[in-house]
Specification:
189 residues, Jelly Rolls, six-stranded antiparallel beta sheet, 40% strand
Length: 189
């Protein structure tokens, strides 16, 4: 069905961030779903022109982020194909009424949801299972010199990470050493 939309969407508290629930066709053999269709997503207002796909594997308690790029800001379409994550977007547009606000959603192998995070947002996720695979499409190239990190636990943002009792948060050296609060961060006008 050319041009039909085979997904349902939920605009979150920051309306530019969209939770996508695809139609899954399944039977005794398994399942099939489309993870990306330019025609369908353009009808939903997502025009990304993706140029890069990424895949990460993490274990329980790994927190990646909150990352963004000043140069070549990336929009990301994120999905979790193994295990589950709590995925977060933080609005870094100073002129936006939701500047400094965050939204989050559980993405999992089970629910098959995706999250569209537009450019000019910081992105991060917490791994909720022992083995987690995350795949995401990016609308611009990775530019390491323009990359910035905001503290995952910045009290001004106040993300309510669903950390299980007895699980320690594990960060990369980059995220531990490069982090700064949003108040000291370079953001977008």
């Amino acid at each position: 069905m050319m041009g039909s939309v085979e997904v349902t969407i939920e605009k979150l508290a920051i309306p530019d961030v969209i939770l996508i629930d695809p139609v899954v066709y399944g039977d005794a053999r398994g399942f099939f779903l489309e993870t990306w269709s330019a025609v369908q997503f353009e009808a939903l207002g997502v025009e990304a022109g993706f140029v890069q796909d990424n895949w990460s594997r993490s274990s329980r308690g790994v927190l990646r982020g909150l990352h963004y790029q000043l140069e070549h800001p990336q929009g990301k379409l994120v999905r979790c194909t193994r295990g589950s994550i709590f995925d977060v977007a933080v609005d870094l547009r100073r002129s936006s009424p939701t500047f400094g606000s965050w939204v989050g959603a559980v993405l999992s192998e089970e629910n098959k949801h995706s999250l569209w995070i537009p450019p000019y947002f910081a992105h991060g996720f917490l791994s909720l299972d022992d083995v987690v695979d995350v795949h995401y499409k990016c609308s611009d190239i990775y530019h390491p010199l323009g990359e910035r990190t905001i503290q995952w636990d910045d009290p001004d943002i106040g993300i309510d990470w669903p950390v299980e009792r007895g699980v320690d948060i594990r960060l990369s050296d980059k995220d531990q050493n490069g982090s700064r609060p949003i108040s000291d961060s370079e953001c977008f006008d």
